[in-house]
Every structure is written in structure tokens, then in C-alpha cells.
Amino acid sequence: MGRTPLDAPERLQEVFAAVLDVLAEVGYARFNMDLVAGRARASKASLYQRWPSKARLITDALRANLPQLPQPDEGAFAEDVRQIIRAWGEPPFDTAGIFLGLLEGSRQDADLASLREEHVDRAYTEHLRVAVDRAKARGELPDSLDTDFLITALISTFVLRSEDPGVVEGIVDGLLRPLLSTFRTK
User: Fold this and answer.
1) Distance between CA 82 and CA 134 in Å, rounded?
2) CATH entry 1.10.10.60 includes domain 9-62
3) In terms of C-beta density within 10 A (0-12 exposed, 13-18 middle, 19 or more buried), how is residue 136 classed?
4) Domain segments of the chain: what residues?
5) CA distances, 137 to each of 70, 119, 176 (Å)
6) What is the gyration radius of the CA atoms in the chain, in angstroms?
7) Please, is 46 exposed, middle or buried when counting C-beta atoms within 10 Å of its C-beta (0-12, 13-18, 19+)?
8) What CATH superfamily classification does 68-181 receive?
9) How far apart are CA 139 and CA 119, in angstroms?
């Protein structure tokens, strides 16, 4: 009996899981096709045939594991953020390790930085950006608030605290609501 081809969805997900596990464990600099091939029980040649670089393999693995994100409109910024972050779900991988590997890799590899920004970052930031814009229009946030910094703070806090129980409530009720109470824009 032969191996299941890499094109089969379940086989592809095995490879992608191996990719994300290896990235989280060793970082970008030490990440290589040999490690992935061994973990995924695939040949290095078959990996290179499909993905010419580790940046493209990692990006495809991340894209395949993006959650389906809603665009909630709960009428309140904190509740919109709660719904968005909940949709990120319980990470099946070492989110902090992957995030740190991506940051490291993006500093070293312009291709990874570009692919990450285009295919991964936008998927996580666009819903938050819409929520921030709505909150500014409702007067919950001041127009002068830097949207990019707020989004980075929310995502980074989630990523770095993703293994903490109650991380969503901690971000929304422990960080965001007190912050919002300091703004009196309307």
C-alpha cells in the first residue's frame, strides 16, 4: 500500500501541522525541510516540489489553519472584540511559538514578511480594523487613537497569553473595558 499523496486534504493537514509544530519548537532560523519531512513522514523532495521555500510552506500552513472570522456588530467595541477573539478559537498549536518564529523570520526573510503580511496579518487585522472604525464613529474611541497600535496590542496580548484560561475575558474585561472607560469622546 502506497503513501497518501500530499494533495489529499488529510495528508496536507498532517504536513501543515508538522510545519507549525516545527516552527514553534525551533524558530525560523533553524526551521528546515528535513525537520518537516521527518515529522510529517514525507520526502524532502516532495516538499520542495510543492513549496520552493520554507517561507511559502510556512505561509501555506498558516493560511490553511486560519479560523473563519465573523464581522460582528454588537453595538459596542468591547463586545465586537470579544466575538472576534473568540472566533480565533482555542489554538491547536503553540501560538506564542509560531508568532515568535514569524517575527524572527520576518526580520531575516523579506519573502516571509511579505507573504505573512499579505495572507495572514490581514486575515486577523481586517475585522478588528472595522470594529475600531465603528467604535470611533460611535464615540467609544477617540479619532486620534492609533488603530494599528491598538490592533497590535490586542493581537499580541492574545498570542502571548493564548494558553491562559480566560484569555478572552481577560483582554476584554480586564484590559479593554477599563481602557474604554477612560475615553469620553462624545
Assistant:
1) 15
2) yes
3) middle
4) 9-62, 68-181
5) 20, 28, 18
6) 19
7) middle
8) Tetracycline Repressor, domain 2 (1.10.357.10)
9) 31
The single-letter DSSP state of residue 2 is: P
Model confidence, pTM:
0.79
For residue 18, the one-letter residue type is: A
Tens digits of residue pLDDT in 81-125: 999 998 887 667 788 888 889 999 999 999 999 999 988 888 889
**Grid coordinates in use for 49?**
516540489
Per-residue pLDDT of 30-74, as tens digits, reads 999 999 999 999 999 999 999 999 999 999 999 998 877 779 999
Report how far residue 6's alpha carbon sits from residue 58's, in angstroms, rounded to the nearest whole number. 15
Q: How far apart are CA 52 and CA 173, in angstroms?
A: 44
Q: What is the DSSP string of 52-96?
A: SSHHHHHHHHHHHTPPP------SSHHHHHHHHHHHH-S-SS-HH
Grouping H, G, I as helix, E, B as strand and the rest as coil, residue 23 is helix
Cα 6 to Cα 18, 20, 22, 31, 43, distances in angstroms: 13, 16, 18, 20, 10
Query: Phi and psi for 53 in degrees, rounded to 5?
Result: -145, 160
Angle at 174 between CA 94 and CA 183, to 5 degrees: 125
